[in-house]
Recover the amino acids of this structure.
């Protein structure tokens, strides 16, 4: 005869009650696992999106030049510029593996939409940019070879919108510059899908920004000390240094307050479930008062009775949390859709990632909470004296 | 704060500029009311050649167009949006747009039709061209009013004025867009594949 | 025959509000090994209180009790639950008015239930054989819900005997049974006493059952009558 068998069979005495308690625990486990999975998935997807930028550090001119609002309202005139000569100086830092200059430009296109809209272009260096962004694949065609070519590479969605194919012409409005489409990229799920790339010199000429760039992407050697580099770069005048790690942190910090709120909900869900557990076990202890007394008369020590009741709690929590984790796994797709609807920015890719470690952690956490909750009912049961139990029978 | 706007703009920027591709009205509520004053509401249907008849339908459309569907973006599964405009229980008319490849970019041609398929409204929702201003002029659009599919035989086009001789390609592209629009409406709504 | 239980001047006082009630008021007696003793008396006479103390289920307010020559209760000495349990499980088996079988365990599992907590070295009985002795071999895989009252009480008796106790304490064992079943239990007790030399301490309201014992002790108002 084993204590665990007795505990398990005790739970079967009131099947509905046991089932409802298990369900309550399962729901709280589902919430916890989904949240932990989302937390993991979001960070992973965010890292991936940012890593896909190809460079770890970005230099721009001081004054938040990429501010979307600026571009929208001022038609691109709000941009601030860096001198191209900066490239040389920066390249000489030992941590730097490669740099790539970029020039963003925008024009107001009166023919776009109802009353006109903005068209944005990114001037890039045909040598370094493709190297830094080696994972960009072409659906058709390839990069332009010439620094001053009147050629364009279009992101998948930009091409789709304009119905452009390789060999077609494209007109840059306002500047009336005609370029030839030489490449259309495959869908990446990032902002590159909507970008039109041109050689940087072509953009400089067309927009009268000779010798100027809006940003410098820096790729750092593997294992190099990025912080050291950024510290040195901070000293450059009129330059703003953004390390992708910082960007990541900023977004993560923005999210953290939301995360705290959401985790609070999970904690509350767990507390409610545990209250259910205490209620169930305590009720069953009170119902079994006489029986527990008789167990004592059979030779059960207080610690035996404690272990017996505690084991019942353990089984409830193991069953409930396992069920909850399975629910979370099964419904993770639905959970992901819900989250995408609620968040303003959601990186592409799997948002809710639940692996075995996370599953084990959830089961462990809830079981631990359950065991804690089960302490009082178990202690109460252990305290029962056979005499009290039997006397209550006689009354 | 700076890093924040940088971060967000880097990640969000192009999404804002390039909205979803398709041939929907930019603002259906506003556009329907403008094209059909007096309307009380509208129904939106999404149709494609693939769903409505597949290869056989495509062949029929091409023969009526006098031209083959070309390229990466003119395929059988492109979705077309048909807006059925209502006044109470009565159908006031239809609005339908198609994408057409232009010289320098995409052209979106929208037609407003009465219940019998006669054009009562025409406009370019999108037009990238050196001569966009002229092509978008009301005079150009007025030429289409009162025309219907019978004015666009398989072999050719009606005799309409091109306001900008230099924009011959885009002018012909606009005509092809209108013809394709009318043929699709005939197949989807008025004609056989109801 | 030597004494297995020796009680001297046992008293048990209860406080109800400001009142002090003596449930037991100075009881002294001896019980020999292998003896079958029944305790009778009206309700409130203190028989259950006495038997509870004899059975080490309760501490007396004063007086002494020796178990097998060893002093268990003495002046000023109160035993905790743990200590009492250790004494109890070595020496006693209990049968009560309500059978208290676990409804989700089979008959055999119920009989073997004490083994989850304690198993007497070498002496512990074979559960199945015990069931056979009590005429329940055929029911070993049934659930309590499928048994009659008498059968259930016999299972309880088997359970009480599985750790080979020296003393079987039965408090109103037939209180919930009809005449026929009462007779069955009576037979069982007699047999345990005769064949296995188990000392039996019985509390009962049933005069016929009481008379089956070797000695009948009557209590009145907390004292021996």
């Amino acid at each position: 005869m084993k204590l665990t068998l007795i505990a398990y069979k005790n739970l079967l005495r009131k099947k509905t009650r046991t089932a409802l308690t298990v369900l309550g625990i399962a729901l709280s486990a589902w919430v916890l696992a989904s949240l932990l999975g989302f937390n993991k998935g979001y960070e992973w997807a965010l890292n991936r999106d940012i890593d896909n930028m190809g460079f770890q550090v970005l230099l721009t001119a001081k004054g938040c030049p990429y501010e979307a609002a600026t571009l929208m309202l001022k038609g691109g005139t709000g941009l601030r510029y860096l001198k191209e000569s900066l490239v040389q100086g920066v390249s000489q830092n030992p941590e730097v593996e490669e740099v790539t200059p970029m020039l963003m430009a925008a024009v107001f296109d009166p023919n776009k939409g109802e009353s006109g809209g903005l068209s944005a272009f990114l001037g890039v260096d045909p040598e370094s940019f493709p190297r830094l962004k080696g994972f960009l694949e072409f659906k058709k065609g390839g990069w332009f070879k010439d620094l001053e070519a009147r050629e364009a590479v279009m992101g998948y969605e930009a091409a789709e919108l304009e119905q452009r194919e390789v060999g077609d012409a494209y007109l840059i409005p306002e500047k009336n510059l005609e370029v030839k489409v030489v490449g259309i990229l495959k869908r990446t799920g990032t902002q590159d899908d909507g970008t039109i790339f041109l050689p940087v010199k072509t953009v400089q000429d067309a927009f009268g920004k000779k010798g100027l760039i809006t940003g410098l992407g820096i790729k750092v050697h593997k294992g190099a000390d990025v912080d050291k580099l950024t510290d040195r770069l901070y000293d450059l005048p009129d330059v703003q240094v953004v390390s992708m790690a910082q960007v990541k942190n900023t977004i993560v910090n923005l999210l953290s307050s939301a995360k705290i709120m959401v985790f609070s909900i999970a904690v509350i869900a767990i507390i409610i479930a545990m209250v259910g557990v205490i209620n169930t076990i305590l009720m069953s202890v009170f119902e079994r008062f006489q029986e527990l007394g008789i167990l004592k008369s059979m030779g059960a020590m207080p610690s035996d009775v404690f272990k017996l009741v505690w084991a019942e709690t353990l089984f409830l929590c193991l069953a409930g949390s396992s069920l909850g984790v399975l629910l979370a796994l099964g419904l993770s797709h639905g959970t992901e859709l819900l989250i995408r609807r609620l968040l303003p920015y959601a990186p592409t890719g799997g948002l809710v990632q639940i692996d075995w470690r996370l599953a084990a952690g959830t089961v462990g956490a809830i079981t631990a909470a359950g065991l804690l909750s089960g302490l009082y009912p178990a202690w109460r049961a252990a305290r029962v004296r056979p005499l009290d139990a039997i006397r209550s029978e006689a009354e | 704060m700076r890093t924040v706007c940088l971060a967000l703009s880097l990640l969000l920027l192009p999404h804002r500029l390039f909205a979803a591709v398709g041939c929907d009205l930019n603002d259906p509520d506003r556009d329907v009311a403008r094209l059909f004053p007096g309307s009380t509401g509208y129904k939106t249907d999404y149709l494609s050649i693939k769903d409505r008849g597949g290869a056989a339908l495509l062949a029929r459309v091409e023969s009526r167009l006098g031209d083959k569907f070309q390229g990466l973006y003119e395929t059988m599964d492109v979705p077309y949006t048909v807006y059925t405009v209502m006044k109470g229980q009565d159908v006031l008319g239809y609005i339908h747009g198609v994408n057409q490849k232009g010289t320098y970019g995409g052209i979106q041609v929208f037609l407003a039709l009465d219940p019998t398929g006669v054009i009562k409204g025409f406009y370019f929702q999108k037009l990238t061209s050196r001569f966009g201003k002229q092509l978008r002029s009301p005079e150009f659009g007025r030429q289409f009013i009162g025309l219907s599919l019978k004015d666009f035989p398989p072999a050719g086009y009606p005799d309409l004025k091109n306001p900008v001789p230099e924009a011959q390609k885009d002018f012909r592209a606009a005509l092809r867009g209108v013809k394709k629009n009318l043929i699709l409406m005939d197949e989807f709504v008025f004609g056989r594949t109801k | 025959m030597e004494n297995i239980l020796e009680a001297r001047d046992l008293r048990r006082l209860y406080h109800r509000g400001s009142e002090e009630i003596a449930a037991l008021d100075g009881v002294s007696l001896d019980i020999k090994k292998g003896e079958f003793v029944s305790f009778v008396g009206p309700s409130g006479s203190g028989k259950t209180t006495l038997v509870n103390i004899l059975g080490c289920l309760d501490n007396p307010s004063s007086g002494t009790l020796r178990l097998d020559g060893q002093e268990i209760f003495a002046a000023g000495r109160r035993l905790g639950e743990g200590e009492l349990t250790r004494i109890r499980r070595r020496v006693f088996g209990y049968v009560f008015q309500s059978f208290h079988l676990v409804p989700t365990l089979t008959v055999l599992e119920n009989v073997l239930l004490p083994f989850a907590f304690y198993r007497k070295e070498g002496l512990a009985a074979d559960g199945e054989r015990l069931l056979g002795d009590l005429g329940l071999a055929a029911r070993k895989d049934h659930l309590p819900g499928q048994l009659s009252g008498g059968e259930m009480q016999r299972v309880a008796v088997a359970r009480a005997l599985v750790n080979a106790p020296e003393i079987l304490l039965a408090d109103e064992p037939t209180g919930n049974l009809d005449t026929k079943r009462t007779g069955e239990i009576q037979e069982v007790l007699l047999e345990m006493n005769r064949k296995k030399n188990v000392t039996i301490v019985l509390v009962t309201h049933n005069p016929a059952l009481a008379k089956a014992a070797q000695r009948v002790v009557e209590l009145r108002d907390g004292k021996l009558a």
